[in-house]
Amino acid sequence: MPIPRGRFYVLDGLDGCGKSTQAARLVTALGSGAQGPVLHLREPGSTAAGERIRSLLLDPEPALAPAAQVLLFAAARRQMLEELVAPALAAGRDVVCERFHPSTVAYQGAALGVGEERVLALLEEWAGEPAPDLTVILDLDPDEARARRGTRDRFEAERPDFHRKVAESYRRTAARSERAVLVSARGTPDEVAARILREVKRAAH
Questions:
Q1: What ranges make up the beta strands (E) of the chain?
Q2: What is the end-to-end Cα distance of the chain in Å, rounded?
C-alpha cells in the first residue's frame, strides 16, 4: 500500500507578525505521524546552500539589486524543495515552512518595484513544485509589527511606507490564491495558534 503524501504548510507575513512562534506551535500541534516528525524549515535557509544565501540576503552589505534578490531567493527555495521538502512529502511527513513565495512577491515584487506578477511567474517556474497545500498569511498592522520587531536586517530596517506596501501585497496574495488564507496575528499567541489550526484542519478535509 503506497504511503500517503505528507502535507506542506507555509506560514508567512510581515517581519514581527509571529511566524517563528506560530510555526513552532503548529509543528507541535501536528505531532509526529506514522512516517516521522514534522519537518520544520525556514526560508531562505534550511539547507547548507540556503543558509549561505540567507546570510547574503539579510546582511545590509553588500548592496543587492532587487531583481538579484529575487534570483537568490529562487535559488535557495529550489534547493530546499529538492533537498528537503519533496523527499519528506514523498515519505509521508508533513512540512511546516516559515516564508515562501508570498514574501518575495511582497518584498521584492511590490515594495522594491520588481513587479508582483513578474516575481510570481519566475518563482512558479523555477520553484513551483512541490507547492504548499496551505499558506497561512499572518495579518498585522505594520505599525504594530514594527513595535514587535527586534534585530534589524536589510528588510526590517526599511521605512514604514515600505512595510505598508508589503502588508498590502500579502493581502492581495490571500485574495487571489485558493490555497492561501489571511489570519489575524493580533491577540495572544494561544489565540493566534487556534486560528491557524482551524485553517489547517479545514484544508485537510
A1: 8-13, 39-42, 95-98, 134-139, 180-184
A2: 21
Give residue-wise pLDDT tens across range 1-44.
678 899 999 999 999 899 999 999 999 999 876 678 999 999 99
> What's the Cα-to-Cα distance from 33 to each of 1, 4, 30, 93, 97, rounded to whole Å?
17, 11, 8, 7, 17
Domains in the chain and their CATH numbers?
8-203 (3.40.50.300)
Tell me 45's DSSP state.
-
Distance CA 134, CA 179 (A): 5
At 180-198, the pLDDT tens digits run 999 999 999 999 999 999 9
Nearest-angstrom CA–CA distance, 169 and 183 = 15
The residues that bridge with 95 in the sheet, in sequence order, are 8, 39
